[in-house]
Design brief:
Its EC number is 3.1.3.-. InterPro entries: His_Pase_superF_clade-1, His_PPase_superfam, PG/BPGM_mutase_AS, PGM_Phosphatase. With 218 residues, this protein is an alpha/beta fold. The chain has a single domain, classed as Phosphoglycerate mutase-like (Rossmann fold, 3-Layer(aba) Sandwich). The protein is 33% helix and 15% strand. It is built from seven helices and six strands, in the order E-H-H-H-E-H-E-H-H-E-H-E-E. The longest helix is centred in the middle third of the chain and has 16 residues. The protein is globular. The two termini are 29 Å apart.
């Protein structure tokens, strides 16, 4: 199966640099809606057969234009949600952001037993994200798109892809509506096909002033 992991459009927290992984969370900014509206034209030729979203509002809103264009009903998979911020939820100070990032970086490097302060461990995260992807695989489609989140996509994709170092995802940025494309399965292994770090709608949809901690290289 080929799986397109699409990051949601810009949220207010992405602009201000706030760590926000609370469910269901906020919707999109005006720019975020423009990013979502650009997806149907950008992905028209990808052969997408099924759409999936997390339990967070921002993925539902981002997926809506593409779902309408393709005539598909997105399926909610809570396991696709962002990595929990735990005690760091709602914080934006440098110490909190660095602690969040260093914890996630450790998971990507193999220390999955470590835990986000007041939140999930790396083992917890990979178990629920793997389960979500397994549910996508079970549909039997050849091409699927899953709307997910910056830290979650980068951590999972870099760890499972056999043709990248474990820390690859922490060294690459992933702007809102950027796409990480992988193919394979858990049985045969996963391979990174493409890492589109910029919004698929083009350079004009990048906000260079945003203080986005989960989209920047860690």
């Amino acid at each position: 199966m080929r799986l397109l992991l699409i990051r949601h459009g810009q949220t207010p927290a992405n602009v201000t640099g706030v760590l926000d992984a609370e469910v269901p969370g906020p919707g999109l900014t005006e720019l975020g809606q423009q990013q979502a509206d650009a997806l149907p034209a950008a992905l028209a030729d990808r052969g997408i057969e099924r759409l999936f979203v997390s339990s967070m509002v921002r993925t539902h809103v981002t997926a809506a234009p593409l779902a309408a264009a393709l005539g598909l009903e997105p399926v909610e998979l809570p396991g696709l949600r962002e990595i929990e911020a735990g005690d760091l939820q709602g914080q934006r100070d440098r110490t909190s952001v660095q602690l969040y990032i260093s914890t996630v970086h450790g998971w990507s490097a193999g220390d999955r037993a470590s835990r986000m302060p007041g939140g999930e461990s790396g083992d917890d995260f990979f178990a629920r994200y793997d389960d979500a992807v397994q549910q996508i695989l079970a549909t039997g489609v050849e091409v699927a798109a899953a709307f997910s989140h910056g830290a979650a996509i980068r951590t999972w994709a870099s760890a499972v892809s056999q043709n990248t170092p474990d820390e690859f995802g922490t060294q690459r940025h992933l702007e809102n509506t950027g796409i990480v494309e992988v193919e394979g399965s858990f049985e045969d292994g996963w391979r990174l096909v493409d890492w589109e770090g910029e919004p698929v709608g083009g350079e004009q949809l990048v906000d260079r002033t945003a203080q986005d901690p989960t989209g920047d290289a860690f």
